[in-house]
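Protocol step 4 of 6: structure prediction from sequence.
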Amino acid sequence: MKTITHILFLLVLQTCILQFFACTNTSGKQSASSLQTAGYQIEEVANNLDVPWGMEFLPDGRLMFNERSGDINILDIKTGEVNALMQRKNSARAEGGLLGLAVDPNFETTHWIFIYETVKSGNQIVRLKFVNNMLTEDSVIIKNIPAAMFHDGGILSFGPDGFLYAGTGDATDPQNAQDLQSLSGKILRMDINGNAVDGNPFGNLIYSYGHRNVQGFAWDNNGNMYATEHGPSGEVNGWCCHDEFNKIIPGGNYGWPYVIGNDNKENMLAPLIHSGDDTWAPGGLAFVNSDNTNTFGDTFIMACLRGSKLIVIQTVDDSASVKEILFDGTYKRLRNIIAAPDNSILFCSSNMDGRESSPLANDDKIYRMRFK
């Protein structure tokens, strides 16, 4: 069992840290960190984690989340208690391991949980069953998604249509992204048994293609899908950076490895926003509603790994703009972000993934943003 072990309180005015101090309550039980701004408060709800990745709430309000090294955990947000439910024997390496997690929208009937993981034969999607606080494997529903040390994708989420979506990477073979016989470099859409959905544009699992490494996706109030994607690191034409925020359409070709940024090529789609010569290394993506009493309105919030921040994005029809930058460098590498049922927002760090030279004390962590 893992519990919160670090106690600190930070008072922040706007984006500048004004005061830092630590304390312990009289019972010796450790409490969440708190960072307050004019419109919201940040709490540290779990720490000493090993690269948290997929996160999703259960109907009872508890959070289920993965650690890349193989633990599937459950977190009681109210108490901060974290318990390991299952240890997956995966091939955790570089960017691979235990990655995405999704809860069946009909969970109260089916009790199904879905995970995306790297094993020796490739990446796979596994259906688990969670009953009476016990997690067991049901079946592997998708096998042999190409895997590599890098570009394994990994995001899983159910869409508003009730189907399961998975984002995959090109597995360091850029041409995979354009190959409609390969599952890598794609967004996949399937039913809960891993079957292609009627209406998928190519008659198979592929929903969109031409992706380098899809890391997050979310849907707006109108059912429009958006996704985050890593841009190149010099492997094609020396191109760098140009990380992407895309609007996803069925059958869309997002251009990798033939175009980046705003480059135009027939029948290939450009991102709504890209990072240019900067690097975001985007992770998870969440849509937050204005009726969540948040300060951002109907917006997307994107977690950034190398960018070490949250980016608030406003979309209007087929355009998008950056509305606000949050916590630039404060928590360092940020992997995932989700909207909670109580209208708060949770995000997690990824400072123990081997790419952060100076992790924060008691990393990795899950943080909670609560609106006043």
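Step 5 (inspection) to follow. The longest strand covers residues 134-145.
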